[in-house]
Amino acid sequence: MILGALLDLGVPARVVRDAIRALGVGEITMRVRKVRRGSLSARWVNFRGEPRTARDRRWKSIRALLESAELAPGVRERSLRVFSRLAQAEAKVHGIDPDEVHFHEVGALDALADIVGVSVALEHLGVERLSCSPIALGRGAVESDHGRLPLPAPATLELLVGIPTYPYDVEWETLTPTGAALLAALCQDFGPMPPLVPRAQGFGAGEQRPGPMPNVVRAVLGEVDGVLEHDVVSVIETNLDDMKPEQLPYLMERLLGDGALDVSLSPLAMKKGRPGHLLRVIARPGERDALARRILLESSAIGVRYSLMPRLKLARESRTVDTRFGRIRVKLVRLPDGGAMASAEYEDCARAARKHDVPIDEIYRAAERAAQEEWD
Fold first, then answer.
1. pTM summary value
2. What's the rounded Cα separation, in Å, for the pair 217 and 1?
3. CB atoms < 10 A from the CB of 111, how many?
């Protein structure tokens, strides 16, 4: 369905067919046709073929196949990343080593075609960033090579750890392990559609199924502002009113060490007039639970609240500049007017100030001036 949506965006079918042929695994035929799902016209994709030999379809063999195939570097890297995530998930739910995960013959060929096809389609479109809405999950059971399994399938759910989902009231599989691996490995964020200028949309068709909406995947190709970047973050909060104040800086330090993007404290007047603090942590969605555990372990909080929040931010990059005080790391932020703003890293400036016994502000000015000169 994902591949069908990308073909519907305008990727020529021959681009995908050439990449699949480069794998050398047999005569795989890709059939593409227009179908209707509900009131929508969508692209339906199906693969058929027979393997040339009864090759080993374990992950380590598929990895070797992808590494040796005549694929563009970006296509190979994406394909390996997706298959790796899929193998790790299957290995965990079945209790085996990832290299020993066995993809049954038909499933292996189908997954290879799907994963390489999506990877080459994204390369052809020149996609630089992928985002996805929260994922709808159906209910019920599905037949597999391992017998009857509950939905979502165990490997699918393993791949969705840290990704927002919601229940969808249909009794069929809305997301397969291969689809979950593609989204988990290739999407940078999950949430509402980001700010963009739409250029095209495409629909990929699944089977004709009953439900509240047509069984399709929609892909939207768009452009974003070159200066403004977008992502989705988890905001974790809790109110603290019975914790020793001198312990708060330590908690903030631990949270930042665990990967929090930002940690802040704000004073509060709480019930019965008690003074307290609002602890707010901004984090990547996949790190939310680990940071929540840290708060519950290292503070007096007995619960936290959280939300997903889209944000816009100025594009930035990290550089290291040479100054007469040594090399200093600097964050360079691009401004909407085409200029840039430099901000030196505190730890490097403090270290240089102690070493040279000069005011820290002098280090800041030297580093930021050097960064600005490089930009200009």
1. 0.67
2. 6
3. 23
